[in-house]
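Lab notes, practical 5.
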Amino acid sequence: MSVTRGKKLTCIAAGLALSLAFASSASSQQSPNQEERPLPSVAQSSTIFHQLEPELQRFVDQQPRLEGQAARVTVRITPEPSTGIVWIDLDSGYLPKTQTEFSEEFGDKLGEIESELYEYLSGTVQFKYVVARIGGRTINEIFPPDYIKERRSKRSTRAAATPVPGLVVINPGHGKYFHYGDNAWVYERPTPYVGTTNVHEDDVTLLFAQLLNTWLTSRSRNFVTEVRHTRATGNPFIEPESNLSWKDLAARYYIKSLLPDEGPTIWNRFPEGKPKRRDLREQDDDIAARARYANHINAETLISLHTNAAGPTARGALVMTKIDDPASVQLSNNILCYMKEQITAQGDYPDFVIRPELANGNNKAEVRDAEMPTALIEVGFHTNSEDAAALQESEFQAAAMKGVEKGYRTFKAGETDCRPLTITNVPAVTGPPRRDIPYTVQFVGSPTYPLYLRSKVVTCPPDYLCSQNSTQYISPGSPPGTLNAVARCTTAYPVSGSVIVLDRYLEDSDGVKSPMVRTSITCV
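Output from the prediction step:
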C-alpha cells in the first residue's frame, strides 16, 4: 500500500529537538539508571504543534487537487489533550464540490495528510490518533460506510445477523488487474521493492497470508473454525481470461469465481467506471470487493496484509484500524504488542521499528467497509532498504505473522493489556547444602510452550560449583502464570555469608525472552 509523503520538515528539526528537551525536562527528572525518557504528552506539546502547522499547510498547498477541490485550503492542527487525539482541521473547501460518496482516491488524499503529521509525531509526542476533519466532520460523518447505509435501506450484503464464530478472512493486499487504458494486466503496486527489479508488494503479501494461515490454524485452533482468503493464495493454475496464475490476480477475480451472481453488490461495483477512472474500474472494483466479501460470508474477523511505501527513510511496521470501533482497536493494539515481541526476539531484528500508535484506517475502503473487527497491517516499508531486506527474509516473515496470530489469539481470549513475557516474582532462597530448595516463579505473558526457566551465574563463591542451568515446562502450570522450580546449594561446606548470585529469565519456544531478574541462593 502506497503512502505519498512530502519533503522532510528539516527546517523545524532543531526547533522540535529544543521543544522536546524543554517538554521532557519539565515533565520529569530522570535518574541516571532510567533507560528511556517518556515522550511529552499532547498537552505538553503545544510548541511542537505550533511549529508543525505552517509546514503541514505547505504540504496541503502542494497536494495535487481533485476536481472540485478549492485551490486554497486552510489547515489547523487541533490537539485534544483529554483524548490524546491530534485533529487536522481542513476547511470545507477540501471536499470536492461534486463528491457525493466516498472514493479511495479521496481517502488517499486525506491519508497522505494524516501520514505526513503522523510521521513526525511518532516517536516525538505521545498521542493516540492523528485524524483529519473537513469542516469539523470526519470522513465517516461525511460519507458513512456502505454497510451502515445498506443497513438503513435493508440492502446489506451480510447474509445473517450474527457472524460465523471463528471465521477469519485474510486479505493479502493487491494483485494484478486489467487496465483498460494499457489493455494489459498490471500490478496494482508496480514499483518494486528497493534494491530489486522483480519483487512486488502484490506477490509478497501472498507469502505473509500463507504463513498467517498456518499459525492461525495451528496456534489459534481454540478460536478459529475456518480461514478464508480474498485471493487464491496457493492456486498456481491458469485463469483463462487473463492467462495468469490465479494466485497472481487481485481479489476481484477470485471473489467473482466464488460468487458469480454477486457482481453489482461485491465485485463489479463500478461496471462503467468512476469519472476520470474508467481505465481503473477493475482496480476500484477490487478495493471495494475485499471487505464486502468478508461481510457477505459473515466473517467474524478481517485481517489485511500490506507493505508500505513512502520516502527512503520512513520505516517500521504500522497497523491501521477503525478507530471508532472499540473491538477493532483492541484487536489492532494486541497485534502491535505481539508483533513487537515476536520480531524483536529474533537475532537479526532486535531494533526493528514497530510504531506504537494506531493509524486511522477510515480512509481505506477495506477497513471502513468491514462490519467486523478488522486490522490492516503494513508489515514494513518496501521503499526503505533495511525494511525491504527484512520483508524478503523467511525468519522475519515468520516472526511477523506469529505476532499477528498472537495478537488475534489474545484478543479472542479477552486480553486487554499488552503483556510481554515478564517475570513478576522470583524469590531469593536459602537452604542446606546439596539439597533441593523448592521455590515458585510468577510471570505474566502468553508464552509458546515449551517454556524454559534459565539461569546465568553472576557471582560464585570460591570452592562452590556453580553452573548455568535450564528447566523445561511442557505446558502451563496451575494456577496460570506460575512455575514450580528447585534451586540447589552446590557445596558440601557452606561458608558463612557466601551467596550465589544469579540472573533468571524465561525463554519460550519462539525465542521470546523475558528481562532478567536478579536473585540469589544462600547455603546454610
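Observations recorded by the TA: The longest strand covers residues 499-508. Residues 201-219 form the longest helix (19 residues).
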